[in-house]
Task: inverse folding
């Protein structure tokens, strides 16, 4: 039924202008602003829709994953831009001082200004 559908995902934030600034200036992404929302443009042909929600509650799970070639360089670049990476120490997930979990694959998590969890994941 949906095999030919160009599905896309979305999530809420409490302040669309803070989100726009973060996704553009910190993460370097292109965005559009349709109808008071934020459309994050990706190479995957489908935008990610970010919408304002007055009673926003951040998800307790990862809402967005960015595959990267070199997680160490990516994490260092984001730290230089003021991003703080999450520290997790449970089960098989144990992050180092930078916030990188050195499993297979390597992954690191951070939050956007609305508290949504985002990851960078090394893809070779």
Result:
């Amino acid at each position: 039924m949906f095999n030919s559908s160009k599905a896309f995902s979305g999530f809420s934030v409490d302040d669309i202008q803070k989100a726009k600034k973060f996704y553009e200036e910190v993460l370097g992404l292109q965005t559009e602003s349709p109808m008071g929302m934020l459309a994050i443009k990706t190479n995957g042909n489908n935008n990610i829709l970010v919408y304002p929600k007055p009673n926003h509650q951040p998800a307790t799970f990862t809402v967005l994953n960015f595959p990267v070639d070199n997680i160490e360089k990516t994490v260092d670049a984001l730290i230089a831009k003021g991003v703080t990476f999450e520290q997790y120490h449970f089960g098989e997930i144990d992050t180092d001082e930078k916030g990188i979990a050195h499993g297979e694959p390597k992954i690191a998590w951070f939050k956007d200004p609305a508290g949504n969890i985002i990851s960078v994941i090394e893809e070779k």
User: Anything to note?
Assistant: The longest strand covers residues 62-68. The two ends are 33 Å apart (CA to CA).
